[in-house]
Amino acid sequence: QVQVVESGGGLVQAGGSLRLSCEASGVIGSVNTMAWYRQAPGKGREVVATITNGRMPDYADSVKGRFTLSRDGIKNTVYLQMNNLKPEDTAVYYCCARLWRDYLGQGTQVTVSS
To answer: Which of 22, 32, 69, 91 is close enough to 38 for a disulfide, judged by CB 3.0 to 4.6 Å?
Structure first.
Protein backbone atom coordinates (compact mmCIF):
# COMPACT_ATOMS: atom_id res chain seq x y z
CA GLN A 1 0.00 0.00 0.00
CA VAL A 2 1.48 3.31 -1.12
CA GLN A 3 1.62 6.02 1.51
CA VAL A 4 2.84 9.59 1.12
CA VAL A 5 3.62 11.55 4.26
CA GLU A 6 4.61 15.20 4.45
CA SER A 7 6.12 17.11 7.35
CA GLY A 8 7.70 20.46 8.11
CA GLY A 9 4.93 22.99 7.69
CA GLY A 10 4.27 25.77 10.13
CA LEU A 11 3.94 29.47 10.73
CA VAL A 12 6.67 31.83 9.62
CA GLN A 13 7.03 35.55 9.05
CA ALA A 14 7.45 36.96 5.58
CA GLY A 15 11.05 36.60 4.46
CA GLY A 16 11.54 33.49 6.53
CA SER A 17 12.25 29.92 5.50
CA LEU A 18 10.75 26.48 5.93
CA ARG A 19 11.78 23.03 4.77
CA LEU A 20 9.16 20.48 3.85
CA SER A 21 9.92 16.77 3.75
CA CYS A 22 8.04 13.97 2.06
CA GLU A 23 8.44 10.22 2.02
CA ALA A 24 6.63 7.77 -0.21
CA SER A 25 6.55 4.27 1.23
CA GLY A 26 5.13 0.98 0.08
CA VAL A 27 6.71 1.39 -3.35
CA ILE A 28 8.97 -1.22 -4.92
CA GLY A 29 11.91 0.61 -6.46
CA SER A 30 12.23 4.30 -7.15
CA VAL A 31 9.34 6.65 -7.81
CA ASN A 32 10.31 8.27 -11.09
CA THR A 33 8.51 11.55 -10.53
CA MET A 34 7.61 13.30 -7.30
CA ALA A 35 6.07 16.72 -6.95
CA TRP A 36 4.74 19.31 -4.57
CA TYR A 37 1.35 20.93 -5.03
CA ARG A 38 -0.31 23.62 -2.96
CA GLN A 39 -3.82 24.86 -2.46
CA ALA A 40 -4.57 28.26 -0.97
CA PRO A 41 -7.94 29.08 0.60
CA GLY A 42 -10.54 29.60 -2.10
CA LYS A 43 -8.17 28.62 -4.90
CA GLY A 44 -7.49 25.55 -6.95
CA ARG A 45 -4.56 23.22 -6.50
CA GLU A 46 -1.42 24.28 -8.33
CA VAL A 47 1.88 22.53 -8.97
CA VAL A 48 4.81 24.09 -7.14
CA ALA A 49 7.73 21.92 -8.19
CA THR A 50 8.39 18.59 -9.88
CA ILE A 51 11.41 16.34 -9.91
CA THR A 52 11.97 13.40 -12.24
CA ASN A 53 14.90 11.02 -11.98
CA GLY A 54 17.77 12.15 -14.17
CA ARG A 55 16.33 15.62 -14.79
CA MET A 56 16.58 19.01 -13.17
CA PRO A 57 13.59 20.08 -11.10
CA ASP A 58 10.87 22.23 -12.63
CA TYR A 59 9.32 25.11 -10.71
CA ALA A 60 6.27 27.28 -10.95
CA ASP A 61 7.20 30.81 -11.98
CA SER A 62 5.90 32.14 -8.68
CA VAL A 63 8.52 30.23 -6.67
CA LYS A 64 11.53 30.20 -8.98
CA GLY A 65 14.64 31.48 -7.23
CA ARG A 66 13.06 31.01 -3.80
CA PHE A 67 12.18 27.31 -3.57
CA THR A 68 14.52 24.38 -4.12
CA LEU A 69 13.33 20.82 -4.63
CA SER A 70 15.72 17.95 -4.00
CA ARG A 71 15.52 14.22 -3.46
CA ASP A 72 17.55 11.86 -1.30
CA GLY A 73 19.45 9.61 -3.71
CA ILE A 74 17.38 6.60 -4.68
CA LYS A 75 15.16 6.98 -1.65
CA ASN A 76 11.61 8.03 -2.30
CA THR A 77 12.13 11.10 -0.18
CA VAL A 78 12.02 14.67 -1.39
CA TYR A 79 12.60 18.00 0.28
CA LEU A 80 11.26 21.42 -0.55
CA GLN A 81 13.41 24.23 0.80
CA MET A 82 11.38 27.41 0.82
CA ASN A 83 13.21 30.70 1.30
CA ASN A 84 12.09 34.31 1.26
CA LEU A 85 8.54 33.21 1.93
CA LYS A 86 5.71 35.57 1.08
CA PRO A 87 2.16 35.80 2.44
CA GLU A 88 0.89 34.55 -0.92
CA ASP A 89 2.76 31.29 -0.30
CA THR A 90 0.25 30.51 2.44
CA ALA A 91 -1.43 27.24 1.51
CA VAL A 92 -1.73 23.57 2.27
CA TYR A 93 1.19 21.85 0.59
CA TYR A 94 0.74 18.34 -0.76
CA CYS A 95 3.42 15.92 -1.81
CA CYS A 96 2.73 13.67 -4.79
CA ALA A 97 4.25 10.36 -5.83
CA ARG A 98 3.46 9.86 -9.50
CA LEU A 99 3.02 6.17 -10.25
CA TRP A 100 0.27 4.61 -12.35
CA ARG A 101 -1.74 7.36 -10.72
CA ASP A 102 -0.91 10.27 -8.46
CA TYR A 103 -0.68 9.46 -4.77
CA LEU A 104 -1.00 12.55 -2.57
CA GLY A 105 -0.28 12.93 1.12
CA GLN A 106 -2.59 14.46 3.66
CA GLY A 107 -0.99 17.88 3.28
CA THR A 108 0.91 20.19 5.58
CA GLN A 109 -0.10 23.76 6.35
CA VAL A 110 2.26 26.61 5.57
CA THR A 111 1.24 30.02 6.87
CA VAL A 112 3.28 33.12 6.12
CA SER A 113 2.43 36.22 8.12
CA SER A 114 3.08 39.71 6.82
So the answer is: 91
